[in-house]
Amino acid sequence: MPRHTINDVARAAGVSKGAVSLAFNNRPGLSPATRERILATARELGWTPSPRARALSVSRALAVGLVMARPPETLRADPFFPSFIAGVESELSKHGYALLLQVVDEHDDEDQSYRRLSNEGRVDGVFVTDLFVDDVRPALLAELGLPAVIVGPALPEPYWPAVGVDDKPGIAAAVAHLLELGHTRIAHVAGPLEMVHGCSRRDAWSATLAEAGVPEGPCIEADFSAEAGAAATRNLLDLPEPPTAIVYASDLMAIAGLSVAASRGIDVPGQLSITGYEDTELAAHVQPPLTSVASDVIGWGRAAARRLLELIDQREATPVDLPPPALVVRRSTGPAPTN
Amino acid sequence: MPRHTINDVARAAGVSKGAVSLAFNNRPGLSPATRERILATARELGWTPSPRARALSVSRALAVGLVMARPPETLRADPFFPSFIAGVESELSKHGYALLLQVVDEHDDEDQSYRRLSNEGRVDGVFVTDLFVDDVRPALLAELGLPAVIVGPALPEPYWPAVGVDDKPGIAAAVAHLLELGHTRIAHVAGPLEMVHGCSRRDAWSATLAEAGVPEGPCIEADFSAEAGAAATRNLLDLPEPPTAIVYASDLMAIAGLSVAASRGIDVPGQLSITGYEDTELAAHVQPPLTSVASDVIGWGRAAARRLLELIDQREATPVDLPPPALVVRRSTGPAPTN
DNA sequence: TCCCGCCACTAAACCGGTTTAGGTGTGAGG
DNA sequence: CCTCACACCTAAACCGGTTTAGTGGCGGGA
User: Fold this and answer.
1) Which residues, 6+ apart, have CB-to-CB distance to A110 below 8 Å?
2) A79 — contact with chain B (CB < 8 Å)?
């Protein structure tokens, strides 16, 4: 069956196609009666304006892009994207927008990706995730004139539209929790420090300790992967004076760390307390259940999408208020060993 | 800067825009010299045909859709999609196609999603994942006339284009491995049996045991989530004669199971052997490292994309040959307890 | 009574490609 | 010398919407 077009609706309603367009974009210039008649006719015919044609004439793509630049290996276990995308989608679909996904392996390709998306006009805006400290992408996107929302903790330059849950309160809560339990040698297994969210979590850990007047424990840089988390843990435990608590920058690393401790016969939380970040589904189902930091990733996605659409339409930014990340205390944290 | 259009190129090359189109779709009717001149001019101007306009005139969307219908909660920890999407994308981008993503919470919404994607003409085809036994979607898509590729183990009706790694060999390998180790009470924690991949893994487990002449151990239906995996494990261990080995339909459930065993002081693999499915990154980093079944999900995504594009273009299907899933033996499996 | 302005609406141009129906120039065949 | 076919290219229609310029009718003020 050949789909209906605006012409069919116009003919059926006895008006010009211009009128149909006016009715559907509820623009002034039609009598209420005519408007209603047109809408009714369209409903009857089951007609809906074609995004393809609309996109061409309004010179908009009616889609936004998300480029995931991690190697698939790292991507595999990432619990963040599916939830984030769910939130994004729920907002986009309300406005007739679609989400275009790209996955590239190399960071070089990522630039190309944005370039192509932009000058093929496939998207009207993009999300930028996994920002690096000194990332070139904001500059690139500015040059391309492509609206972009940075997904992640706030940046130094506040004028760049970033939407994100500040991870500081989450990490701070974890550190505070450990301090309360009497720990004084609190280590950190960080994400890559060249990444903004790796760096900001490390800073939060460091700042919280400083505020409490407790000397900073050792910090090892890892890359959010289980492998690296395990290696970092081994290094920490091999220290002459190993920490009594480790704050990990991700659940994945924390779970790997848990397993390293177990394999060495180190009791968690008796001899070692461990906290994760992200509150993966699995966190509650490892042994012992992992204390972690949970944030509302879906709401975050929704907020980011809303902001991006505002940017595209050059509308005023509505303030986003996301709940701060919350510490979920489980059994991987306990009183500092007394010896 | 205003982007260039086909008209600019035509003018610059001193030809009509029709000629430019011919050159770019390398269609006959141009002398090699002219063709080359046009392409050179375009290259110089940095012009590339606009998918928007192309989509309108060829009546194609130049995009395909993927609808993820799981509740975000289940989606969160799913290691499948990111890799799969990476594979899909790598194939699509070669052909100027884009991937449109939708996430819906309810299965009812999923139908709506496909309907909308189809009759808004947003996509030329879709992937169908997480197929149910007696799923209505194939019928719906057939009715809509929307090309679709089912992602998952092969279906009863072979004429429906399905691309997937048959999970039978993987599960069979796991069961065979356990049998070799002397296990005779081998249980299964299944995915939802109303889902094709839940069902097919259960069947594979059952069939392999039958072929070996070993009586079927208990089978508990779960839903691929960690929570359900843990509950199922508790049930199995509470049996008067608990199994000595459990084959899980997913790593997530297996890891949760591992943790249940640990919390009860049951030694894995001394008293209980455990296998997962999917070979998540974490599998190698839990305690003990999990024996699991790995498949080439990226290659799978690539194959599915290739098939879908063929379907859309009404081309002949090139045979897909994906490596069968392979058993990765780690330390969660060992000889059956002797008592 | 005439003119002006406004409302409701239509006709046509436009977005940027593809595609089809010609149109021109050249060489071969009769 | 005329015709015909063919190779090469152009002009214009088309995809399905949006948008702008313009038209007809009607009420109100002078």
Assistant:
1) A67, A69, A104, A137
2) yes
